[in-house]
Amino acid sequence: MALEARPRSDQACPGIEVTLMVNGSQFRMALDPRVTLLDALRDGLGLTGSKKGCDQGQCGACTVLVNGRRINSCLSLAIMHDGDEVTTIEGLGTVEDLHPVQAAFVAHDGLQCGYCTPGQICSAVGAIDEFRQGLPSHVSRELGPPLLTDDEIRERMSGNICRCAAYPNIVAAIREVMEARA
Ligand code: FES
Ligand code: FES
């Protein structure tokens, strides 16, 4: 399905054509080259699940998956992602059919205000995949399959800030999913 997204009305530059595959649907957009991926998703496509916390790469609220890898969408220009597959929180699960990480966050009470939660969950999905691939983190003692410790989970999620401090429950939720898939 190809959908047309309208550019922002306040754009001063002529738009550059970009095609994004977002949550399984193709979108063609004409974008000011200065528009970030986060703004293209939120303002251009109306996908407001990804949050703008700091807008400078420090909080992780804007985390999305691009071609399966997590990135801070506030730090990336949309025109850099022509042809890329983007997954936002809206593409992971539904209320009726939660993604396993979403279900674990609910089960472990891993959210309070919930503002950071979409980024936390997208980041957790990416982190779990990296863990399963055996990729080391900064706290891994050696190369090879990492140990499933809370320190590993905390380190891998350290780019995502939760000012409500739901961290113990977030770690428990991610651990449950990692253990279930191990
Ligand atoms: S909004 Fe992107 S890291 Fe904070
Ligand atoms: S649940 Fe409120 S900032 Fe994380």
What this model shows, in words?
The chain is α/β, with parallel strands linked by helices and 182 residues long. Helices cover 30% and strands 15% of the residues. Helix 2 packs across helix 5 (167-181). Residues 111-117, 162-164, 166 line the site of one FE2/S2 (inorganic) cluster. Keywords: Iron, Metal-binding, Oxidoreductase. This is 2Fe-2S iron-sulfur cluster-binding protein.
Task: Briefly say what this structure is.
With 182 residues, the protein is of the alpha/beta class.
Output the keywords.
5 helices; globular; iron; 2Fe-2S-bd; 2Fe-2S iron-sulfur cluster-binding protein
Spatial sequence of strands, sheet with the most strands: 1-3-2-6-4-5
Report the total helices. 5
Query: Biggest β-sheet, characterized?
Result: 6 strands, mixed
Unreliably modeled segments: none
Query: What is the N-to-C order of secondary-structure elements (H for helix, E for strand)?
Result: EEEHEEEHHHH
Question: How many extended strands?
Answer: 6
Q: What amount of the residues lies in strands?
A: 15-25%
Name every ligand kind in the structure. Answer: FE2/S2 (inorganic) cluster
Distance between the termini: 35 Å
Radius of gyration: 17 Å
Tell me, rounded to a whole number, the average pLDDT.
Answer: 93
Shape descriptor: globular
The chain-level structural class is alpha/beta
Fraction of residues in helix: 25-40%
Protein name: 2Fe-2S iron-sulfur cluster-binding protein
Organism: Sphingomonas agrestis
Domain 2Fe-2S ferredoxin-type: 16-92
InterPro entries: 2Fe-2S-bd, 2Fe-2S-bd_dom_sf, 2Fe-2S_ferredoxin-like_sf, 2Fe-2S_ferredoxin-type, 2Fe2S_fd_BS, Aldehyde_Oxdr_Iron-Sulfur, Beta-grasp_dom_sf
